[in-house]
């Protein structure tokens, strides 16, 4: 299995990316019927953004620790941190998509129009762009990590792609927290 993954990392990255983006954009654009997901009490739906903010903060921590540990040669703890980061991101995404489907799309910005146009939209746009760019980079780095022995990973593109993915992931999660703050704390 590892050998098959190793031989098809770019193709698998493309397929996983296409499936992921199709899910995200179909939910965001309201193409996923609400009947496909179980209903939830209103308090659960209201709690999701707060839970996702905590997940995002945790992911910032695990990504940072993973980076720290790999720079010190602690491969095993790096791997644990990056697996945790991936799990946190998957949890974030599942909750986010669930809420999007239940609400029929993203919620409107409740603040003033000038803040919406000149602060919120640019931050949201950069956050979304980075999140979209991160998806194939993270898949690529993960697929390399699971298909090569640790001793060979340094000779693949894993260190370079992983560094780029982690950087963009950190910025995207950070901007997501700013967007959350504007939507749920400030306004």
Low-pLDDT stretches:
none
Instruction: Estimate the global geometry from the Cα principal axes.
Output: globular
Beta-strand level of the residues, as a percent range? Answer: under 5%
CATH architecture: Up-down Bundle
Furnish the topology, listing elements before pairings.
Elements: H1 2-7, H2 9-28, H3 42-71, H4 75-103, H5 113-147, H6 150-153, H7 158-186
Notes on the protein architecture:
- This protein has 187 residues and is an all-alpha fold.
- Helices cover 82% and strands 0% of the residues.
- It contains 7 helices and no strands.
- It has helices at residues 2-7, 9-28, 42-71, 75-103, 113-147, 150-153, 158-186.
- The N and C termini lie far apart (50 Å).
- Pfam families: DUF420 (PF04238).
- This is DUF420 domain-containing protein.
Question: What would the keywords be for this entry?
Answer:
7 helices, Four Helix Bundle (Hemerythrin (Met), subunit A), DUF420 domain-containing protein, DUF420, mainly alpha, 187 residues
Brief digest:
Helices cover 82% and strands 0% of the residues. It is mostly helical.
């Amino acid at each position: 299995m590892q050998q098959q993954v190793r031989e098809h990392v770019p193709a698998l990255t493309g397929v996983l990316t296409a499936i992921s983006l199709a899910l995200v954009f179909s939910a965001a654009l309201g193409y996923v019927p609400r009947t496909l997901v179980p209903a939830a009490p209103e308090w659960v739906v209201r709690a999701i953004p707060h839970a996702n903010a905590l997940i995002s903060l945790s992911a910032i921590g695990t990504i940072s620790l993973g980076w720290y540990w790999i720079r010190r040669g602690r491969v095993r703890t790096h791997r644990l941190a990056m697996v945790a980061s991936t799990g946190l991101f998957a949890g974030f995404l599942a909750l986010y998509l669930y809420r999007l489907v239940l609400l029929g799309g993203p919620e409107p910005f409740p603040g003033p129009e000038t803040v919406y146009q000149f602060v919120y939209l640019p931050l949201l746009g950069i956050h979304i762009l980075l999140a979209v760019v991160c998806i194939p980079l993270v898949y690529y780095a993960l697929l390399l990590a699971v298909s090569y022995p640790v001793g060979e990973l340094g000779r693949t593109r894993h260190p370079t792609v992983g560094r780029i993915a982690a950087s963009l992931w950190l910025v995207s999660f950070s901007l997501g927290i700013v967007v959350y703050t504007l939507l749920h704390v400030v306004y």
